[in-house]
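re: ur question from earlier - yeah i can do the single chain one, its not a big deal. heres the input i used so u can compare w yours
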Amino acid sequence: MKVFLTGASGFVGANLARRLVREGHEVHLPLRKNSDLWRLEGILGEAHAHQLDLRDFPGLCKALVEIRPNAIIHMATYGAYPTVQSDFDTIFGTNMVGTINLVRACGKVKYDCFINTSSSSEYGLTKKRMCEGDFPMPVNYYGATKAGATIYCQAHARLTGAPIMTTRLFSVYGPYEEPMRLVPSVIKKCLLNQQIELTQGTQRRDFIYTSDVEDAYLELMGRPDLGGEIINIGTGKQSTVRKIVGEIMIATKTSSVPKWGALPTRTNEAESWVADTRKAGRLLAWRPKTSIRGGVEKTVAWMGKNMERYSAR
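and the output i got, formated as tokens:
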């Protein structure tokens, strides 16, 4: 297929871009002028890069009419990492304005599917499994703008019949993840046998390995019949921070010793975070296949070979 993939310079987008190239698709990547392309090294010669900002509606329309993609996968986002991404104008401009511009621009071409990527952050704080039908209760501007973009996509699909679906991703981890995030930061310290300072580590998350997310998107690309649907992409299982750190320590054979409680728990941080995956199970011929141990081992092996990518980050 001819695929127009936004957000390819980010963690999940870069992994999907690489997978699409390997699978033989014609991949078009809109990239901002100042994008950091370290995650795309090695595939830019095989994909088609376009200097483009989603906030530029006329430029977006022109590019889409020229490319005429069969599939649009929207992964561009900003604000998922509140410690380093707190600019409200960029959060709103990327998540809301960028999404609306893309949906409107795509109205000028005929396409088979449009996958809008959203986040479990839409759900907010809850102690139960997060279900697609739950009322959004985000606790930050990132979650609020992602919820707004989802609502717009749903309304557009209902009004026009466009094959637009939305995924809500849970705690994705794997190669190319942002260096300050839990899994890569702990792996890096373990490989270097450095001290690891952590919170109490009782928080539970629905960790899903990136290749399982890629598998879900490949399935969704062939399912235009799911237009108008919202689907959780998670495992439906929770693991504590302590568990995943323990798996990292085993995989790295480190001499590091974690200092639990050395860091404070963030404000508005949930203790429980898990997907209700019944809808995905009902609608998709897809199931996550990678265990926590297997995913950690793959990530450790990749980081061991690519430490130079993280040394200055």
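The radius of gyration is 19 Å. not sure if urs matches, ping me
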